[in-house]
Amino acid sequence: MNMKMISSSSCCCCSSTFVPHLPSSFTFLKPKPFVSNYKQFITTICKMEMDGPNKKKKNRKYGSSRKSILKKTLKQEQVTFTAPIDDDHDPVVGIIGGGMSGLLCALQLEKKGIRSTVFDTGIHGLGGRMGTRMIDNGDEQQSMIFDHAAQFFTVSNPLFSELVDEWSKKSLVRESPGVIGELQPGGHFFPFSSAPPRYIAVNGMRTLADSLLSQSSMVEVVRPCWISSLEPYNGMWHLSENGKHRGQFDAIVIAHNGKCANRLLSSSGLPLIAKQMKRLELSSIWALLAAFEDPLPLPAAAAAVPFEGAFVKGIESLSWMGNNTQKLFSSQKTGPHCWTFFSTASFGKRNKVPQENIPSVTAEKVKELMLAGVENALGLPTSSLQTPIYSRVQLWGAALPTNTPGIPCIFDPLGRAGICGDWLLGSSLEAAALSGIALGNHTADYLRSGGTRPDEFAVGLHDDFKPLQGHDIGQFPGLESNKEIYEPQLLTGA
Which Pfam family would be a valid example here (predicted)? Predict the structure, then answer.
């Protein structure tokens, strides 16, 4: 599984190599005259982006609704780069998003000899849905660690299997011997008797993400950085963050989804890509991180060997409970017992609020309901669960895909832009990895072709979406209830 978590104008500058489109900040401003000087062009863009949010303009809306963004998406003009890719410099790709798919896309480009820059919003590290929260109390035994998105992953694809073997040899991941199963109300636990190997990152999922680029020489990482606009100029894509120019690139990759990606694409000049992204439907899930001073009283069926995690059935406020301490340290650690609890998607939808600003009353309500769900699942009397010594709730507003086109990646050769992510093949770390590798290969082949045969490289711009089945916290190839796992035919290009 893998979880974490993140406008249009008809007047534009002209160029012999493409038909550009102005960014979101131009939407409700008067058209500006043609700007022939590059420095003046960038200065104008930056000034207008910085001025826009600070000036209240009548009818100004920043893509606040799905409908408004979709309307803008359908109206925007297609950016078309017609000139060959410049032979005087080595191509470079801008990758927006540092989760599994974005990182493996960058590494695959490096294998093909192509440089890239990964832009990620992470303050504490890379990873996207491979998020880990670490709380250091100055005492190793009292420190707390929570995987608060992806809990573990399984392997079914041979290509991904080779990759995981490499990670294992580097001691980045290991198989988890712990017991998992299904937990029903009243403390009825049913361990999975036969299941595929489950893998975890040795020191939390985020450490895997942070380690992937450790030996890379052709990938630059910029974080925390929130790319706010994409602007084509003089045959290149220019990326900026709230008016600050962040570089120019021969091609771009969108390696994240949700509301922020939709806003970014709504005025990018990539209507076909934006339209496909708009078809994606995402669930909302609450995560509760809770540390307890004493072990939780587990059901009798799990008492002999404490379970590492359980898919919870029949309780709306709870779909998963995982023991991070048991998973990462087994019996070696005597400090707080750290658990990650996830709600169901229906509970997330019913209690959804803006995830950037969760009201305290909602946070407290969600916490109480989820802890009550834990009591119910474990068969404990009401209000008998010990009070956590630490707790934190987080809403994954764009948690997991519920539909998919079942293709490894999307690529628009006219606009020299692509998308990768788990949602293109499923909702797992494996799906994210395969998608990133596929787009890295495809983008490299396109760039090496000189960009002069675009018709041969268009991928996924019109594919239909199908409903996606799986657990509320994602897909785990090989486990039960994963009947809609897509076996991708990875793109190798022309």
Answer: NAD_binding_8
Q: Superfamily assignment of 24-124+214-280+405-467 in CATH?
A: FAD/NAD(P)-binding domain (3.50.50.60)
Instruction: Kindly write down the DSSP assignment for every residue of 292-337, as one continuous string.
Output: ESS-----HHHHSS-EEEEEE-S-TT-SEEEEHHHHHHTTS--S-E
Structure tokens that stand for 453 in this block: 């045969």
Segment 124-131 mean pLDDT: 88
DSSP-derived secondary structure for 54-85: HS--TT---S-SHHHHHHHHHHSPPP---SPP
pLDDT average, residue stretch 127-147: 84
The number of beta carbons lying within 10 Å of the beta carbon of residue 61 is 13
pLDDT at residue 300, as a whole number? 75
The DSSP bridge partners found for residue 401 are: 282
Q: What is the mean pLDDT of the chain?
A: 83
pLDDT at 486: 41
**Helices then strands (H, E): number in the chain?**
12, 22
Tokens at 117, concatenated: 């820059």
Q: What are the residue ranges spanned by the domains of the chain?
A: 24-124+214-280+405-467, 132-208+283-396
Angle at which helices 429-448 and 158-169 cross, to 10° = 100
The per-residue pLDDT for 101 is: 97
For 269-293, give one letter per residue: b (16+ CB within 10 A) or e: bbbbbbebbbebebbbbbbbbbbbe
pLDDT tens figures, 375-412: 999 999 999 999 999 999 999 999 999 999 999 999 99
- The C-alpha atoms of residue 386 and residue 129 are separated, in whole angstroms, by 29
Tell me the pLDDT band of 140, cut-offs 50, 70 and 90. Answer: low
- Residue 383 neighbours by CB distance under 10 Å: 8
CATH of 132-208+283-396, one of 2.30.30.100, 3.30.450.70, 3.40.1440.10, 3.90.660.10: 3.90.660.10
Secondary structure of residue 291 in the 3-state scheme: strand
